Fold each of these.
Amino acid sequence: MKPPPFSYHDPATLSQAVELLATLDNAKPLAGGQSLMPMLNMRFVLPDHVVDLNGIAELSGVRITESRVEIGAMTRQREVEFSAEIAQACPILIEALHHVGHRQTRNRGTIGGSICHLDPAAELPTLACALDAVIDVIGPNGARQIAFADFPVGYMTPSIELNEIVTRVSFPLWPREAGHSFQEFARRHGDFAIVSAAAMLLVDPAGRISRATLALGGVAATPLRMHEVEAALIGQMATPETFRAAAELCRKVEAVGDVYVSASYRQHLAVVMSKRALAQSFSRCGAMQKH
Amino acid sequence: MIAPVDTRIVGHSVERLEDRALLMGQARFVDDIAFPGMLHIAFVRSPHAHALINSIDKSAALDMPGVHAVLTMDDIAPLLADRLLKVALPSPAYRQELHRPVLADKEVVHVGEAIAAVIAESRYVAEDAAALVFVDFDTLPVANDCRDAMAPDAPRAHHGAPHNIAAEFDMGYGDCVSAFAGAAHVLKETYWQHRGVAQSMECRGVVANLDPMSDVLTLWSSTQTPHAGKRVLCGLLGRDEDKMRVITPDVGGGFGPKLVFYPEEAIVALAAQMLQAPVKWIEDRREHFVATTQERDQYWDMEIAVDAQGKILGLRGLLIHDHGAYTARGVNIAYGSAAAITLPYVVPNYFLDIKLVATNKVSVTPIRGAGQPQAVFVMERLLDRVARELKIDRAEVRRRNLVPGAAMPYKTPLKTRGGMQVVLDSGDYPATQKAALDAAGWEDFKIRQNDARAQGRYIGIGVANYVEGTGRGPFEPVSVRVAENGRIHVASGAAAMGQSTKTMLAQVVAEQLGCDMSNIVVVAGDTGAIELGMGGFNSRQAVMAGSSAHAAALKIRKKILLVASHMLNVGEQALEIEGRVVRLKGGGAQVELAEIAKAVAGLPGYYIPGNVEPGLQATEHVIINDMTYANGTCAVEVEVDVETGLVTVARVVFAHDCGKMLHPKIVEGQIIGGIAHGLGNALFEWMAYDENAQPVSNTLAEYLLITATEMPPPVEFVHLESPSPLNELGIKGVGESGVIPMTAAVASAIEDALAPFNVNITKVPLSPPDIIALIDAATRKGA
Amino acid sequence: MDSAVDTRTISLTVNGKAYSKAVSVRMTLADFLRHELRLTGTHVGCEHGVCGACTILFDGMSARSCLMLAVQANGHELTTVEGLANGDEMHPLQQALSEHHGLQCGFCTPGMLTTLVELLRDNPSPSADDVRIAISGNLCRCTGYEGIISATLDAAEKMRAGGVK
């Protein structure tokens, strides 16, 4: 289990990296390496060139504006996990990160790497789906922004060109009084989710749900946004029965099955995780909103 | 319960000899060995579960810079005494010979079977070149599921074989037909258990080097059986015994599969000989999944007959055992299962029909527990059924059937694989069960359970008894030698793979020879250090090697005191060995061990003091043919999330009796490790294959080992010590105890937790989807 | 040796010692430490980032050395298991692991130690659950983790009392 032969490039700037990816054939950008390196060791990928992005300082860093958290693609997951500012502004991001692998992998793994790898069971793409994250990419034809809704084009396949690099992931912020929850069912701590559910809720002073989002990870080939559930919630009183009934809609999702976990079990878990995520989100809605 | 310890080292949790080097990063595992000019092997392995090999084209690989050789059977056959590894233990049960070839050349019968060895300047280049060895296959139908493979028209695991039965035999005694005919109750059930892959954290590995000066070929192998390995290699390669040496360096866990001799060991040895260069092969984790032996599926079709009070009248059935593609060890797992099932209980009539079925999967050989966990699972599940049907408490049913303490030693009608009668030598099984139940609060659990259910929580408690045959004989030699600098050297064939064998041997020897652990140097598993040896398996090291070490140390002790009495001119009784000196009890005159060793080494023209035989060395191989039987009872509490199927193990209580404990902390460590393994077998570990016998679990992200976050709070122990009468030290083995009752206890606990749904658990492992399916099925049935 | 790819010379510090060495660009950091620097205390258990045996401290942060290329360590500071003790005097964690029988075969131990050194640095008073989570990415087949967890809690207490960093 040793990496195949390749040429190694370690650009110091984004423009050098763009240039390299534009000119080299069969090149693979290397971010935190927590997914690509195992695939190299197992020779599941055989690049002629590896372009290491770890030396590009401009790709790292966190910025919080009025409306969003902007995270440089090469920002380590650990940096986000331990950011007090993000904990304030976007606590669901921290909650999701606690499910991402282990300490050792979060120390190296990056936000952009996980988003690009687009494992349907991974937490960050699921959260990005729930929050309508925006992904900034750059390539030989310049920079562009992709809404997460348009980002996955298939199983582990993002809508970016082979010569493009993700530079930034932005998560829109919800009002402070919103409640959030990231629920995950995995076999062991730190494993990829069998099913995860990311939810946020806003409730009006009368106790009616005014805004809701729900995304499911692990269920299908890509993260799923549950618009039908959201629509069913809006305007309803936030009660356990409301959440139960809305979550029940998830039983109809088209789920994947494999030798370990059947599609019907994933559908079942989609209901359970959604119900729990909605209930917990509501329990965390701002106090003044709840009565 | 535990006798006061009147020893100073034995029986105490002294610091382990092994720890310091391991903690400081200074241990030496096989992959830590390096020689200048060392070459590296990568194997070309079969991607197919079953195929004929038409041709092998190695030209492109050989053309690659850095590649030194590509070996196939055609290259090595002229140098081998046999193309096959004939290492199977003897048995009249075989129905066909299924020996592994050193390299496959005509047919491959499981994914991962080695076809060619690429030898290159580095492992990286060797892997590059291995990808360029082109093998032309014709794929064949596969024998996948061992039950299906028994059908007369099933695809054969081996092309042209008359059938897929690798071996068959039966075991039993009494008259089951009459017992069942007259029984108040007869219950039937079919059970399936899966075990999986050993997953020692260190995979296998081999380094070989031919010393041009001495012509000695030395093989360092991460093996549990170096002496057996040497014997095989001498035969295969035609080397004289004194020109072949096998050494086990530090070994990063064994758990069974490393007791088997493997093709890779032969190839690395042969390559070093052929290329006149040091050669290394380190198994990677992907290879471990397909090339290291496993313990997989057993299907039991069982019936139990009981009287109106739940007393067992008879037990009978059929065991179908997945044997894998080859016979890499023997019929011993199935034999061990069949021989273990009745052990804790009085079973007056017993009959089991046993079929070992060849499949196109990697060979099956023992993993920690070696068939016994499966047997315990079946027996304990059946007793839970009896309890449920007869409405008797589960523990009470067991109590009524356990072999009573007063019956010890209890002669069962069973025989070991070597034909010796199985005699349960000591222990009080009902007292052990009671101790576990008391510690677990069995009587009061119902109250807690009802309280929890009122809150919508499903908790359950389970119990399982086991009796483990330990200390497989007939012997394990140990030599003890006091060197002329006073250091005490201990050598044994008892290979160590993490179970603290060196500490154990040093403790036994130190107790007699000065009680200074730091003065003792232990070599465990080096054919150059001791001539005979069996190795590490079957929870035998402390029993077998410990007994030999004790005998050898006593012999040397006697000699030391005799010589010292002459040197100091006092009676032997007045002397004691303390640290590195022999001295008058209470102080005064003394002589160093070093001086005694020098004195008995002799001087030309002078008497040896005391006229003893020269040298301070003794080699003992205490022969103990009968196995000593350890026992225990495990109680487990679980909580089941009935929405997700998640099972949380909340508590493990473990009452057991392994005779005298040499080192209580090591005993507990062995048991906890076994418990973790058993919890994995109950809830996590599954070696999945698809319908073409292609392995689906190929990484540690797919094959789930239990981690720290899934482990229960600290295990609660009750230690009982009934000394074994079979050895001087009164000990019984413990290395596999922890794993044996776990699947049974967990299944019992889950069934109890889910009693409101009335589920019936008949298989392990149980994943969350399985739990939900059980609940769904029971709900549908109830509705 | 690796005839198939380019080499680069890298400079790095390991356990306080500076090294400068030419290395094949595809060599993993784990292999480099073990076979080029002969620091064989770091163990390779799975080479796909699951078992944790190869964990080292990379600029003070735990990382899986099988999931890094050696060339990526250029200019960085690494600590391996060989660098934890103070000369012959074991680190409190090493001492505690021995006392609590937190190791058997010892193969996973280096990765456990490096992971736990980081934990105790960042969280000097961990709960048992904190320890469990910290080592949930480190597999051990021998111990059932129990001795490792109790050793860590014990070492933490001793380090707090002794002011050890």
Amino acid sequence: MEKAINNRAWFFVLPVLVFVLFSSLVPLMTVINYSVQDTMGQNNFFFNGIAWFQNLLDPTTDIGGRFAAALVRNLLFSFVVLLIELPLGVGAALCIPRHGWKVGATLVLIALPLLIPYNVVGTIWQIFARADIGLLGYVLTHLGIAYNDTQDPTSAWATILVMDVWHWTGMVALLAYAGLKSIPDAFYQAARIDGAGRWSVFRNIELPKLQKVLVIAVLLRFMGSFMIYTEPSIVTGGGPGESTSFLSLDLVKIALGQVDLGNGAAMSLVYNLITLTICWVFFTVMTQLDRRKDV
Amino acid sequence: MSVVLEHVGLRVGNDAVIDDVSLAFERGTMNVLLGPTLSGKTTLMRLMAGLDRPSTGRILVDGEDVAHVPVRRRSVAMVYQQFVNYPSLSVYENIASPLRVAGVGRAEIESRVAEAARVLRLEPFLRRLPAELSGGQQQRTAIARALVKRAALVLLDEPLANLDYKLREELREELPRLFAESGAILVYATTEPSEALLLGGRTATLWQGRVTQEGETPSLYRDPGNVDAARVFSDPPLNELPVVVAGGRARRSDGTPLPEAMIPSLPDGSYRIGFRVEHASVVEQDDVAASQGDVFPGTVSVTEISGSESFVHIDVGFAVWVCLVLGVHDWRPGARAAVSVDRDGIFVFAPDGSRLQPSVVRRLPHAATG
């Protein structure tokens, strides 16, 4: 059959192209532009090669040292977040009732923190944690625990970690719950008939069946925690000192605070690349493991 | 060992899921639970396994009420319609799992698993994970797990429903043999009448949580005791016709008289007659006038061809009846044809659904004249 060629069809694609151009391509090109140029002021830019990148990736320079320190903080934060939120989320999912009106009530309660805007979460915890008037800070101080999230780095880290756990464990729990619900009842029956105990049911049935859902949970929680910005910027502002200055906070300080566009642009590109690479490695490794099993 | 259900019932909320079931199972027998989806087969098996407790009645094992014996201490094995294996354990470990829980010694586990694997032809796959096997191999692993346990009561809940037909035929033949040596009570749930007939043994037909009839499988097929049992044990569905008898004359419910002497003489009242496909044959349009007996003209609506036989669905105006024709026939939808009913295959059911036994029903002399 002969197909009629009608070039007017391109008009239908045009809106998407324009949208993509302005939403991704133009901003990205701007950042790339800044990352390879320097300026002497008066809006005069000249080509600077890869100097910004060289500086950034050399930890002996001022900017390189900041970047490396922030990257280590980010990695540590994401690692601890995954370490706490995944087991806790799965544990919570196992405790959610499976039948009756309690299901809805529990799910709503668990999902509630997920529905609060990030900056509101930050504000709630900023006030909650204050040593002078915040409930948490006040109680801890009166219990004799040396807690002050504006002066003590350990307190600041603990506050941000607990806040993230409070904010996001619900998502892991919901994902895991959906995974658990999809396990046919026959598996549990078979285990009961075999005389298998609770641990053995978890280890040999529930955990393997949850694997796919947990890959998604790890991916989402890693990306979320690695790109965290709003909450710590409100609660600690990156302090005390530089102790909670994650990459995103540092980036904003450099690019917008100091209007250091070259360093800022190079940093945001490398930051972006690191996130993409880690996610790609995660995804590839985990799906590869999965494929080997599904042959 | 024997298992006896005495007036067992199970209520969930206000619904009687299982309603007054009494059955007895003897050592070394094959027992089929035949019924459509949601008729209570799986629930009944769960009760027998001890996964649920009946709300009324008793379950006796060797004469003792087992209501308070936990599942793990009962000698029960179960195979499901889904392929249920531990996903993270190898085939070997899967088969060994019930023995490990039971604390059987290492050497014995090895020999018993090897034996089960040999019988079920799983030897090449022992190191693999269940997800690396085909459906048939996965189900054979599940069956090996049940077999290795040497349980006294083996519950097979539509174990072949998810397999392709070649494997089904193979396993259906093997299953009873595999468990025969152990002397276990085999209980096999299925929705398919043909599967029940192939398995033999005894059959109980289930309908809406009640056992409608129970007995030797072939005689149950020949002599359904009520309309529910006949329907459950008929595939393609039972052909049915409500009739009203008044003054010795049988008519359809709309008043059209039935062919003379088609059904036995009955006291006045309303009845339902039923006959299976093998007692209904197709008469071609040209032969209708010449044919004698009970012929209902109509049009062909569908023909299901299975190869050795064809099921022709004929719309006779007040119902669609299914006829059996041997061989492959090409009846076009819309073609005019008639259904001829074999009088000897007619079951007569009273308004309450119970069947009037042939001995009760006096036949008119037509049977002698042909």
